[in-house]
Specification:
heterodimer, A: mainly alpha
Chain lengths: 60, 204
Amino acid sequence: MQSVRTTVLPSRLRRILLLAVAGLGGSAVALGTSEGTGAGLTPVAVVLATIAGFSALWSP
Amino acid sequence: MVGTILPVVHGGSSRKHLGPVVAHAVGAVSGGVVVGASLSLAGRWTQHSFWGDGQPSVGLPILGAMALLFAADEAGLLRVPHPQLHRQVSQRRRRHAPPTVTALRYGVELGAGLTTFVPVTTFYVLLTAVFFVGDPVMGAGVMAGFAGARAAPVAAIAIGSPDMATATRAGDSLLGWEPLVHLVNALVLAGASAYLLTSSASNP
């Protein structure tokens, strides 16, 4: 039987910090673009579709 | 999923499995297009009924809050309910139908994403985003992208593997990365949440 290498997650505090950094990045992108409401939703949906699609590979 | 779908799309020799691989991809994109267009149409109708033509940007704060909640869930910081149906293509149908037809059915169900396991909560935020986009063509395109991203790795493993054992090994080697996949989803959701909430505050 083949052994599977499992990745180890950072600690709870580091995960919170990583989320905060990602949030700051998201805010910076929003402030750096002068798009209207409709144009703002679609790029987010495209990013979410791509990541959700690839992640589905890990579905049971 | 890889363990179930690979035997369906991988027929043994490189020539044999091209048909099921293409059928799976076509089915997936079709399923995604139908769900995306329907959901966006429903979103357009709902938003028009409630707010008329001069609709406020209600989708941005709702999506932003939802993405923040699910980011915490994906990071393992809190638990949020994951409503989902666990139905798959039935064993009986799988056994009796030709491989291409089975691959097509799998593709449709996986591309639509509504009747199968939901491995990451990003999918719920995606469906809500497609609803609020309110444009059937755009919604269909976004969900076709989801279906394509879902089908592409399976197709790549199936085409790139000379035999089923190699394909299974490639699929198994992905399993160890699951915790990292959830963390990446958490970071994407956190970024999306901040983007949406900031946009909402700047466009009241």
